[in-house]
Amino acid sequence: MPASPLAPAWLSEPSDANALAEGVWPASAHRDETGGAVVGGVSVREVVARFGTPLLVIDEDEVRGRARRTVAAFSAAAAARGTSARVYYAGKAFLSTEIARWVTAEGMRVDVCTQGELEVALAAGVPAEHLGFHGNNKSVAELRRAVETGVGTIVLDSEIELERLSRIAADAGRTQAVLIRVNTGVHAETHHFLATAHEDQKFGFPLAEAARIVERIRRAPGLRFDGLHCHIGSQIFGTDGFRESAARLLEVLSIVGDGGEPAPILNLGGGFGIAYTSADEATPIEQLADGILEVVAAESAARGIPVPVVAFEPGRSIVGTAGVTLYEVGTTKDVTVDTETGPAVRRYVSVDGGMSDNARHALYGADFSARIASRVSEAGTQLVRVVGKHCESGDVVVDAEYLPDDVSPGDLLAVPVTGAYCQPLSSNYNHVPRPPVVAVRDGAARVIVHGETVTDLLARDAGLHPSRGEE
Ligand SMILES: *Cc1c(COP(=O)(O)O)cnc(C)c1O
Asked: Which residue(s) pair with 381 in the sheet?
């Protein structure tokens, strides 16, 4: 069958529309003898029979394995240059107490950006000194809570915050270690990066002011300057953007000197790209770690300064590929569209969730893939768009994919690579309850985040519950 004229250029027609592509699905994923998909040793048909759809399934060993491999890669690359590495899990990608326990058991620290995330990490038992706290508008209450609980590193984002934190820490009789978030002017897009003098975004201090801010911190009561931080973007392939921003920050470190403080930290953030579809190829983490550390060592040597302790904050590359969302197909509909080469059919496949459990296409135009998970099919393929049940034409989960032509109501449809930035961005739009999250490992499934019920949805309606004791 010729490729559909409606298919985007990156999407090629699969030779097998049942295949669970390597690198896109968790490593444990396969089909059993009945053709049903299995993740973490658990049949998706069975897990759906227990927990219903939509359902977010997280492969625990995939998360743990990626956390372990990432820590090992950066530790080895750092050790080879005579320094050490700290690897923080960026909690915003998907944080629950279970996930925090898995990644910290594998050697990661945790990065949070609100009091809510901080409370989850603390409740999980993550040692406070292994927490980093960033964000451009942390409230006084949040800063106070962070200081009181002993958060290891706070990333300063403005001079107002510097003064606030100095006062809070001094009043509490503490010395708080801080990093400075620097807007390096380097911004990474998926396959290229831009480096400008003035990047127009809300985070951080301009590069040209960083040295002055270090001096202010050194004079401020209650604060200790621990190093520099940047985060140049997300879903980045290759090392060019990291290398450029590392060079710019090392220049600042060479200007400010060590001030008699312990070896400074160079935190280069997260953003390592993963494969959302077979068209993407993720760079192996060992290669990224080595490429980045090589330039950190070379640029330090060129300036005659010691190689700093390095820190990283990956989120997506730890949990993204571990998540698979399962939906049930409700309806299908063929829509004929005029194209330059004549009319073409796009089949809309409607599932029982949508932008409330996966806002990534609606928000960022993100691409995903899909497979029928409950069975295999020998039918030819058809170009489809997977859409949700919300009252919004932009309610698209998978913009373009080839599925077997016989995709039908009742089929289970799986969308892989939904472990990062799906559950945390989920909503109750249209009063749709948020789905549960189930961890799978060694053939066992257990809930790690409860699904919402209609009772939960009504519980905040003050027309039904006039007071919850808040005033
Ligand atoms: C979002 C973010 C991260 C994580 O980015 P990923 O793309 O998920 O790796 C790390 N650090 C900071 C400061 C961030 O804002």
From this structure: 404
